[in-house]
């Protein structure tokens, strides 16, 4: 059976099982999910206060416990896992069709060389750079759980725009920038907080933030920071 067919049948089975659970065990699961969504909605409207935060996380807990009691949820989760790994397999095995134009044989071939990356992707654990002097390289990393700390005081940025991209699911990102470096920050967060120099925001919910220092456009040394976090804090400071 192909992965797509398996996913389709798992989803159909999950729908049938969910209806059967409602007929056999009543509407307990629906009531729990509905009550949790109500708490999340009320908490989201009052996230700035302590009461709203408590209601929000109580709602998350109720919805999670209600779903964990449903066998249909595990079927949907299995279908999602199969779909995820199928996509990874397709991306790593499928080779796009390429067209090679013909040139004169005298034309020289372009050579590329592999560069050692400063960071590596990680599932779990913290990453840090800045304990000792290191050579700067444009960086693009992602991780699942853990904190990331990057101290730019221990490197020399090029006389052009440097790029730093960090993506993670759960965890904090702390970036330390020298005083003579101009900064452009693009940050996307589902839920978390932001502290970019003097600009601070708490309880950010599904928000995109773009901040730039005044002299960025005309500076010879500048860095563009692009971060994406599902849940966590971004902190950009000068030390």
From TrEMBL:
It comes from the Bacteria. Keywords: Membrane, Transmembrane, Transmembrane helix. Residues 123-236 form the Cell wall-active antibiotics response LiaF-like C-terminal domain. Residues 15-86 form the DUF7649 domain. The chain crosses the membrane at residues 12-42, 54-85. NCBIfam families: LiaF_C_term. This is Cell wall-active antibiotics response LiaF-like C-terminal domain-containing protein.
